[in-house]
Amino acid sequence: MPETTTSFETLRTRLSERTAVAGVIGLGYVGLPLATAAARQGFRTIGFDIDPTKEAQIRAGRSYIDAVSSEELGRLVAAGRFTATTVYDRLAECDVIVICVPTPLSRHRDPDLSFIEATGREIAARLRPGQLIVLESTTYPGTTREVLKPILAASGLTPGRDFFLGFSPEREDPGNTAFDTTSIPKVVAGDGPQASELVQAFYGAVVRTLVPVSSLDVAEAVKITENVFRAVNIALVNELKLIYGAMGIDVWEVIEAAKTKPFGYMPFYPGPGLGGHCIPIDPFYLTWRSREFEVPTRFIELAGEINTSMPNHVVDVLARALDERLKRALSASRVLVIGLAYKKNVADVRESPTFKLMSLLEARGAEVAFHDPHVPEAPSTREHAEYAGRRSTALTAETVSGFDAILISTDHDAVDYGLLADASLVVDTRNAMAARGLPGHNVVKA
Fold first, then answer.
1. pTM listed for this prediction
2. For the chain, what are the domain ranges?
3. Active-site residue identified among 278, 407, 415, 427
4. 100 catalytic per annotation
5. Could you count the other beta carbons within 10 Å of the beta carbon of residue 246?
6. Do the two domains 7-214 and 229-445 of this chain adopt the same fold?
7. Rounded to the nearest 5 degrees, what angle is found at the Cα of 229, between the Cα atoms of 223 and 231?
8. Are 95 and 11 spatial neighbours (Cβ–Cβ below 8 Å)?
9. For residue 2, is pLDDT > 70?
10. How far, in Å, CA of 325 to CA of 443, rounded?
């Protein structure tokens, strides 16, 4: 009898010939660029999302993410290389399924793996031999092995024989024009040697540089480590801002001078609080996981306390500046916040500290509006649904004169900062005014 071709061999051949069908679940800031990159490299790609508006926009060739151009998206869709759907039965068509769903925190700041678990069950209901499942969602070490793997194995198929499992942490950086999905080195790991080979075969066809590691847990730890590193260093510079501010020293000037040292120093910058899906959330995944091993995480938790306290500090600075400079109470003031997005030059509002700032200001009686050239209307968010539908206020000289204070939360390049030079008061959390050489007589840094 001739030898039976194994699921592994079949999939390896399809990947090498690029006849494999790639499926990407979750078409947000991670999933859509990955799906586009896979389609660009010759894989027929199916994108899955529960949001029918995303499906409609992709089918029409309209991108809703800056990292993917509508021109390229439309070309891939027209060529039949990429399509989107809300129908999960089509998972059976896919040889590779990449999971790019959110991993938020619960109200008690514990990991919320409900999206991973629900997605795993959808896959398990349609799992067939010869498929590679890769998780990209950021999570604590052990998730792929302890949570996702048993869900998939409940299908009755055997991991490592019938289907294969991998983890590759997403490393997207919205707004970064120097790096994209294909140029950022990709950390990859598989559940066993064959899974590792298949994960490398898929991503090796899509991105330029692979960084294989020894296990799923190591790959998960890599992403957590990257974001804990940033969170801790941002907390440090936020604390230095408070210390130097009390001494009358401008922390921004200190950083500019310190970063001229060609070794032993890396600049991080203070701000009004952490934003984005990773840095405000991922460290808490590790602190939660560490409790199982009875290992304290005092350093990480302290960083979290410092960073989460920054919106309160900014509002206190604003209230004090209004009182001292304008003899006006915050409760009787109109405040225009510049920037709803969590970082400059993007439309991404996930975990943006601006929402917290607006909430704190309104709780203290202020009338608040926002201006953001990239976010014409506030979307619905889990934590601040009350702001959904609020529209960006046009930035004009007349608008500026109508507010008692301007609060710069996000330093978008598209903002006309020259207009703010005539404002009664500018509270600047990003050093945006000084960085542009604008007069500082009305500026208070926070």
1. 0.91
2. 7-214, 229-445
3. 278
4. no
5. 8
6. yes
7. 105
8. yes
9. no
10. 11
